[in-house]
Structure formats: structure tokens, C-alpha cells
Amino acid sequence: MEIDRLLSQAGIRPTANRILVMRQLIKSERPLSLMDLETSLDTLDKSSVFRVLTLLLEQGLVHGVEDGRGITRYEICHGDHHQPGADDDLHAHFYCEKCQRVFCFPQINTPHVDMPEGFSVNSINFMIKGICPDCQ
């Protein structure tokens, strides 16, 4: 994935901080929290990482999922149509209650929800909780 191109296509200027955060999210095997990113990107402070994440969320390049403990974790959106403010990469996640890791299951789509007239859905948080194979 060419990070500069992804950012530019979303109308985001590819600054060093934005590229660093995107690179970390792309190479991660699971969704990352703000603290995870801050720890792995020791050259950036928490507020810089948060500002980048906020922009990436607004522009639809990443989505956030609450992990079961009230902590938001972030991952790259792999949907076909990035729309600012809308999450088109709706899939299930798994929270291990023992090791507290979050796993992404892109092959499991979130169920369709028929909303009452007048309501529009921007995102769905579909979190499955249990014990992962490593902790069994």
C-alpha cells in the first residue's frame, strides 16, 4: 500500500506524522489503541497521534472499534468506498477476555440492521467476547 497515495486520495496532505501513524496501522496484525500507537511511535506525543487519528477517522481511512473495556482501537479501512464520516468496512472483532487482545475478522460481516425511517447508520461495533485460541 502506498501511504502517500492513500492520504492524497482522501484529500489529506501526507505529512511525516500522518505517514508514521498510517504505516504503524498498516503493519499491525490487529487494531491498535492510542496508547499502543504512542508507545510504538516514540517520536510522537499522544496529542499528535490523537490529532492524526481524528483526521484519518473523519476522512474514512481508519475506523475505530471499542474493545470491550471502553478503549477505542483503530485499524485501516479496507472497504471500496471511503466516505468521510461513514464506515464502509463493517466487520466483526473478537475481544479475548483473558489476554485483552482484539482480533479483526474481516471475513465476518456485521449483520444488516433495518433502522427506522429517519435514522442513518455511520458505523456498527460488532464485538464478540470470549477466549482466544492462545489463551484456551
Structural write-up:
This protein has a single domain (3-135), classed as Winged helix-like DNA-binding domain superfamily/Winged helix DNA-binding domain (Arc Repressor Mutant, subunit A). By secondary structure, it is α+β, with helices and mostly antiparallel strands. The termini are far apart. The protein is 29% helix and 23% strand. Helix 3 (34-40) packs across helix 4. A hairpin with a 5-residue loop joins strand 4 (91-96) and strand 5. The protein is globular, with a radius of gyration of 15 Å.
Draw up the topology in text.
Blueprint: H1 3-9, H2 16-27, E1 32-33, H3 34-40, H4 46-58, E2 62-66, E3 72-76, E4 91-96, E5 102-109, E6 126-130
Parallel strand pairs: 4-6
Antiparallel strand pairs: 1-3, 2-3, 4-5
Helix pairs in contact: 3-4
Descriptors:
single chain, 136 residues, alpha+beta, Arc Repressor Mutant, subunit A, 3-stranded antiparallel beta sheet, globular
